[in-house]
Write a structure and sequence with these properties.
The chain has helices spanning about 5-15, 20-30, 35-40, 50-65. By secondary structure, the protein is mainly α. It has one domain (about 5-65): Orthogonal Bundle (Helicase, Ruva Protein, domain 3).
């Protein structure tokens, strides 16, 4: 699955949250160890199976109301 597809599906799953898009982006940033800018720059890249599995697990936890970690997305490299 491509990054942009994963984010689209995640936003749908988290639609009841007022911050669904941000939540999805930050969770995927955490899984990939990348910044939000990187996600959008490389949105056509395919997720590896282990990355997709980890993202699905975090989404499931977020769907139950577990708060996301505000530090999930690392700062840009300088």
């Amino acid at each position: 699955m491509r990054i942009d597809e994963a984010l689209r599906q995640a936003r749908g799953r988290l639609a009841s949250s007022p911050s669904a898009a941000l939540d999805a982006e930050l969770l995927l940033c955490h899984v990939l160890g990348q910044t939000r800018t990187w996600l959008f720059t490389w949105s056509d890249r395919e997720l590896e199976a282990n990355q997709q599995t980890a993202f699905e697990a975090l989404l499931a936890r977020r769907e139950t109301g577990e708060p996301r970690d505000r530090r999930a997305c690392r700062a840009p490299d300088r």
